Amino acid sequence: MFDSGVGGLTVLHECLVSLPGEDFVYLGDTARFPYGTRPAEELRSFVADVAGYLLDLDAKLLVIACNSATSAGADEARRLAEPLGVPVVTVIEPEAEIAAAITESGKVGVLATPTTVAGGAYRRALEGQGRALEVTEVGCPDLAPIIQRDATFDHGVIDTVRGYVKPLKQAQVDTVILGCTHYPLVAPLLQRILGRDVRVVMAGHAVAASVQRILAERGLDNPREGEGDYRFLCTSDADSFREIGTRFLQMPLGEVRRVDLRG
Amino acid sequence: MFDSGVGGLTVLHECLVSLPGEDFVYLGDTARFPYGTRPAEELRSFVADVAGYLLDLDAKLLVIACNSATSAGADEARRLAEPLGVPVVTVIEPEAEIAAAITESGKVGVLATPTTVAGGAYRRALEGQGRALEVTEVGCPDLAPIIQRDATFDHGVIDTVRGYVKPLKQAQVDTVILGCTHYPLVAPLLQRILGRDVRVVMAGHAVAASVQRILAERGLDNPREGEGDYRFLCTSDADSFREIGTRFLQMPLGEVRRVDLRG
Predict the structure, then answer these.
(1) Which one, out of A32, A54, A181, B144, has a CA that is 20 to 30 A from the CA of B46?
(2) Three-state secondary structure call for residue A201
(3) A251 vs B188: CB contact, 8 Å cut-off?
(4) In a 10 Å sphere around its CB, with 0-12 CB exposed, 13-18 middle and 19+ buried, how is residue A57 labelled?
(5) How many CA atoms lie within 13 A of A150 on its CB side?
């Protein structure tokens, strides 16, 4: 599994809880964080670096736990992985599937970074689900930075989140996709502001369900009784990855090792 | 709502998410933390102090979000509150009700502090649910202190939790009550070790459901559209309460004020 930084750990979190028997290696390409502001061509080459590195470790399945990398590089990852018989799971499509399946009113909201919204990947994925959906997207420039920066949210976070949620309340959505892997850290706050009746769809649940289904279909699932291993690679300082990562994983991190992708 | 410290904030968390329209005041009696090792008679007088303070603030419902205070002082709180028409919701009984309702095998596990296990309150509450249950209780002396101490769990936490969970796995329970308000912070880890098929019951969900039902029954629920206020009182240093509290509430704390209960 990989991401540009620690955000994808919210996806790993759900996989660790849902698929305890599997082994995971997570690579955060922290030296080149953030991916969101880079040209697609550059991102595609980053995805090739990271996917290549993980395939060399004999990964049996690859998860792209990053919106930007999915938009720009999912095809590239598949080009490298599929000839080796390695399936690729991405974000965006799994959340769109779940949202389309659970919305009753057909009114779906998306909270994401401005880059993700501008790229239109969630809108396309939702429109490809075979039912008429009314999609309201809100770009949230300040939300991921606030979450990344500070473990102790101050009260201003509430106003920031409330501002972003307002168009979704006005549109009366009954389902909201958290279209950035940082956002699960404010999921309780979002749920409080949206109200209990609104369903919140996060990449973690959606990806874990996809991984589980694909492993089972291909007979690749690990039948062990106990828990598997998980470990972490990053491309800049390991200590700061561990420090900030725990908040995103909500579990002990254990081994974190710095690697050089070009090495 | 009150507790001896920050643990009850995991209960408040769920109430804030489930009952966004209500106003909450949370009092952490941090000057006399921990309650768990004190004689019942002393605890009863603490409960009288705290409940009295909150009733003077015109609380319409009182939640005892603390196992020790519930065991020793629920009667005392009711004696003070009920003549004023104020219902009292405690921990223990709500979790027992839910666990008895959802267990299929009838095998229920309880993780709690040694004091709570020794007091037998969960066992009695479970045995009073009107169906035959096989109850396995595990006293976890190290778990709450580990959670209280350190935001960045090290890998040793996994071994500690695995040790406590072992008797529950051997007993093949299908439902586990987290009988201490600190434990939700390791709920993902517990779920991973227990496996997805085991249902984990936390005080937060159980209490929020009870509060919602009682408010509705008595016509006391707040019909407002937006979110209510929440604020915090504690009996020792406000800054350290705020610092450690955010981790337990998983939301911004905002106002924290130090009060003197004997004032």
Answers:
(1) B144
(2) strand
(3) yes
(4) exposed
(5) 14
Concatenated DSSP letters for B146-164? HHHH-SS--THHHHHHHHH
Angle value at C-alpha B218, between B212 and B201, nearest 5 degrees: 25
- What does the pLDDT look like over B32-57, one tens digit per residue? 998 888 888 999 999 999 999 999 99
Rounded-to-5 percentages of helix, strand, coil across chain B? 50, 15, 35
ipTM of the complex: 0.89
Number of C-beta neighbours around residue B25 at 10 A: 17
Q: For the full predicted model, state whether its pTM sits above 0.80.
A: yes
CA nearest to B22 within chain A: A192
Q: Which residues of B touch A (CB under 8 A)?
A: 13, 16-18, 20, 151-158, 188-189, 191-193, 195-196, 227, 242-243, 246-247, 250-254
Rounded Cα gap, residues B170 and B26, in angstroms: 38
State how far the alpha carbon of B94 is from the alpha carbons of A142, B117, B178, in Å: 40, 17, 12
Tell me the residue type at A162: R
- Option in B192, B243, B254 nearest A20 (CB): B192
